[in-house]
Amino acid sequence: MKEVITRFAPSPTGNLHIGGVRTALFSWAYAQRHKGRFIIRIEDTDLERSSPEAINVIKEGMEWLSINNDGPIYYQTKRLERYKEVINELLQRGNAYYCYASKDELDELREQQKREGKKPKYDGRWRPESNKNLPKKPEDIKPVVRFKNPKEGSISWQDLVKGEISIKNEELDDFIIARSDGSPTYNFCVVVDDWDMKISHVIRGDDHINNTPRQINLYKALNAEVPAFAHLSMILGSDGQKLSKRHGAINVMQFKDMGYVPEAIKNYLARLGWSHGDDEIFSMGEFTSHFDFEHVVSSAAQFDEEKLNWLNNHYIKKMDLDDLASLLDLDLTTNKLNGVLMLYRDRAKTLNEIRENIQFFFDMPKIPKDLIEKYMNKESMELIDKFIDELNQHSWSDEEVNDQLKAFVKKEGIKFPAIAMPLRVILAGTDHTPSIGSIISILGKNEVHKRLNSFKNQYDY
Ligand code: GLU
Q1: Is there a contact between 451 and 364 (Cβ–Cβ < 8 Å)?
Q2: CA–CA separation, 270 vs 59, rounded Å?
Q3: Is 86 in contact with 194 (CB distance < 8 Å)?
Q4: 369-458 in CATH: which number?
Q5: From 78's CA, which of 207, 337, 346, 385 has a CA 20 to 30 Å away?
Q6: Looking at 142, 245, 411, 450, which residue is catalytic?
Q7: Is residue 76 packed enough to be buried (19+ CB in 10 Å), middle (13-18) or exposed (0-12)?
Q8: pLDDT given at position 201
Q9: What is the pLDDT of residues 290-333, one digit of tens each?
Q10: Counting atoms of ligand 1 from 1, which one is nearest the CA of 194?
Q11: 317 is known as an active-site residue
């Protein structure tokens, strides 16, 4: 069987969109599944819109997610000689021709076609044909090169996601393969590259479906083997609209900044538009061993932040504490950090949430006024003092503090929140924390006394 070679071919014109990442992930997974190769190719021939920053963003994103390419990264701008060579070949073989139509002329043609209710299309005025006289070459116009698209018949392919697609050649025009400055166009470069790089499966967004018949005609003109095509549907926002900035994060590195972990993003995207029974959680090994196109849906997939959060929480919970600490830039050897992370990792949706929530272990918290008004008064302060006095007779181990708290509540005949809430407010600056007994134990005797005294001084209790 032929080697499976897939590719991700982004144009470096901006950020790395989450939809692009899914395309890359599926291409990578398909190659993995078939023990093939996965290539990254930067389509940077559009010099005005491409930038080195955007190339870095792509590399950074792929690296962060460990969607690793086999071999070097290819750049189209380094292959210009090759494109020239193939264009000349097509010209010589009569599969392409120079077109000297000026912009004004073409504008006029388009207007006329519109007026006549026709679909705007190049009319082939410079297309060489037997028994046809071509116009006289104008001196002042640098020609473009057009591909001589077949006029009859139709092009069809069995799309691995969308099923059979068929287009009549009469719908297509002789598209430009080299601009008047000699620079080659996307539809042309992509075919030469996929051919030269022996790509077996072209996996890309379905916004390229319209390009595919043109490209297939080019393959045929080059006597090149036509690859298989799989066009992935778009990702929509939760409101059913095209995913855009309006929906919050769409660029992959934004997800990193927001505290998502690569495993969650990949797992989420793997399931977005593809399924394996009802399974939701996949390691990348499991994903690549199951991935196929039969279970890729052909309709658009909807982005669901809640589900991504759920998966992110799943992977954060599973994480080794050392790894988690290092992702959070924390030094595990200090401050009983282990205990802190154990307390917070199970409930966190993102790393940033952990970062924010554990800040009070390291810095004295700022206590919001409304919480003071809600929870602090003479009685609650007396309760705290009484409890801490009693606790001073004991060790401050996690177990002991929690036992003492329970015993105290019982003895005083109060409800747990009557003491837990004021303690949370003073020690953590919030009324939402995991076990306050554990927090007291982690902060330790000195720090708890320090915080209580500081609060009393500040508010005159
Ligand atoms: N460079 C194209 C893009 O970023 C993709 C080309 C392809 O996959 O064929 O949309």
Answers
A1: yes
A2: 20
A3: no
A4: 1.10.10.350
A5: 207
A6: 245
A7: buried
A8: 98
A9: 999 999 999 999 999 999 999 999 999 999 998 999 999 887 66
A10: 9
A11: no
How many CB atoms neighbour CB 1 within 10 A? 6
Residue 262 Cα to ligand 1 middle (Å): 24
Please report the atom of ligand 1 found closest to the CA of residue 13: 4
- Helix, coil or strand: residue 344: helix
Do 79 and 193 form a contact (C-beta atoms < 8 A)?
yes
Which residue in the block uniquely carries the two structure tokens 């134990």? 441
Close Cβ partners of 159 (under 8 Å, ≥ 6 residues apart): 165, 209, 229, 230, 231
**Residue from 222, 291, 286, 227 nearest 4 by CA:** 227
- Token digits of residue 426: 């003073």
Backbone angles phi, psi at 178, to 5 degrees: -140, 135
Residue of 17, 22, 38, 43 with the most ligand 1 atoms within 8 Å of its CB, for mutation: 43
Task: Tell how far the Cα of 33 is from the centroid of ligand 1, in angstroms.
Answer: 22
Q: In this predicted structure, what is the pLDDT of residue 335?
A: 56
Give the pLDDT of residue 276.
Answer: 95
Cα–Cα distance measured from residue 186 to residue 178, given in angstroms and rounded to the nearest whole number:
9
CATH 3.40.50.620 in the chain, residue ranges: 5-71+187-236
- The alpha carbon of 453 and the centre of ligand 1 are apart by a number of angstroms equal to 63
Beta-strand relationship, 228-232 and 301-302:
unpaired
Given a cut of 50, the residues of the chain with pLDDT beneath it are none
- Residue identified by tokens 């020690």 is 427
Calpha distance 46→79 (Å, rounded): 13
The residue whose CB lies within 8 Å of the most ligand 1 atoms, and thus the one to mutate among 186, 189, 209, 212, is 186
Residue 236 CB neighbours (<10 A): 18
Q: Which homologous superfamily does the CATH classification assign to the domain defined by 252-319?
A: Glutamyl-trna Synthetase; Domain 2 (1.10.1160.10)
Residue that has been written with the tokens 């080697």 in this structure = 3
Do 280 and 259 form a contact (C-beta atoms < 8 A)? no
Q: Return the CATH number of the domain spanning residue range 5-71+187-236.
A: 3.40.50.620
How far apart (Å, rounded) are the C-alpha atoms in residues 89 and 93? Answer: 6
Q: Could you give the count of Cα atoms lying within 13 Å of 154 in the half-sphere of its Cβ?
A: 8
Domain 80-178: which CATH class? alpha beta
